[in-house]
Specification:
- Strand 4 and strand 5 form a beta hairpin.
- The model has no long low-confidence stretch (mean pLDDT 97).
- Helix content is 45%, strand content 19%.
- Strands 2-1-3-4-5 form a 5-stranded mixed beta sheet, sandwiched between helices.
- It is built from 6 helices and 5 strands, in the order H-E-H-E-H-H-H-E-E-E-H.
- It is of the alpha/beta class.
- The N and C termini lie far apart (31 Å).
Length: 166
């Protein structure tokens, strides 16, 4: 089983940077299970301040509510790892910052925390461009905590690329 390497993540980040610059869009990230890794991958690039606005890491319900405007009722009803929460996280990130593109991730990286309904490796990723509709997709990643997080970062960046080329 092969997981995205640092070089592959850097290549994806470089592609995001190129498109963000072309489209004159600032990026914002809202992260839970990746702990800021998406923002790190993007800001590892020199000159990222020209297209990267902000990154928010929200692990707790309270942080998701306070920093991203996630509805407490959504968290009570569906939990943090859900389509609804990912959609509210990405929409909240875009609403709070001057960015033109946002990505949000929420999931269970493990090794604990999984349930029969939401096993370790369950990740929801949301994307939204300013003026557009939020979309979210469910992923089920394999491997240990680092493998789940690496795959999440890669999938998040690939989704940004897709959103920016539509």
């Amino acid at each position: 089983m092969s997981f995205p390497s640092d070089a592959e993540l850097r290549q994806l980040a470089e592609q995001v940077a190129e498109l963000a610059l072309q489209k004159r869009l600032m990026m914002v990230t809202a992260e839970s299970c990746t702990g800021g890794w998406i923002a790190k991958a993007l800001t590892d690039l020199p000159g990222s301040s020209a297209w990267f606005d902000a990154g928010v890491v929200t692990y707790s319900y309270g942080a998701k509510e306070a920093l991203l405007g996630v509805n407490p009722g959504t968290l009570e009803r569906t939990g943090a790892v859900s389509e609804e929460t990912a959609l509210e996280m990405v929409s909240g990130a875009l609403a709070r910052f001057g960015a033109g593109m946002a990505v949000a991730v929420t999931g269970i990286a493990g090794p604990s925390g999984g349930t029969p309904d939401k096993p370790v490796g369950t990740v929801w990723i949301g994307w939204k461009r300013r003026g557009g509709y939020a979309t979210a997709r469910l992923f089920q990643f394999d491997g240990d905590r680092e493998a789940v997080r690496r795959q999440t970062v890669a999938a998040a960046l690939k989704g940004v690329l897709h959103s920016l080329t539509d």
